[in-house]
Design goal:
elongated; 3-stranded parallel sheet; single chain; alpha/beta
């Protein structure tokens, strides 16, 4: 029983990257940054976007869309409401403290 579960898990883990590789080929992933351009958070978002493009399957292009005020509680819905529903936009992750 344990071997069967391990084989199913191994098959699922190897099939997922193959499907994901096709998902982002030729697309652009956009990180939405709630800070103005040129600041510390913008530099952080651009570094994250660069690594995201290098490590994501399919090698997508990445970019940063600055939306000043989107990091505030009042502006937080700006990201999801303006992003296309195709899964190519994401909010900038908060830096670790």
């Amino acid at each position: 029983m344990r071997r069967v579960l391990l084989l199913i898990l191994a098959a699922a883990l190897t099939a997922a990257p193959l499907q994901a590789a096709e998902t982002y080929v030729g697309k652009t992933i956009e990180l939405i940054d709630g800070a103005p351009p040129g600041g510390g958070y913008d530099i952080y978002a651009r570094a994250v976007a660069r690594q995201l493009g290098r490590t994501s399957p399919g090698g997508p292009n990445t970019g940063v869309k600055n939306m000043p005020g989107a990091a505030t509680p009042n502006g937080a819905p700006l990201g999801p409401t303006t992003a296309p529903p195709n899964g190519t936009s994401a909010r900038r992750p908060a830096p670790a403290r």
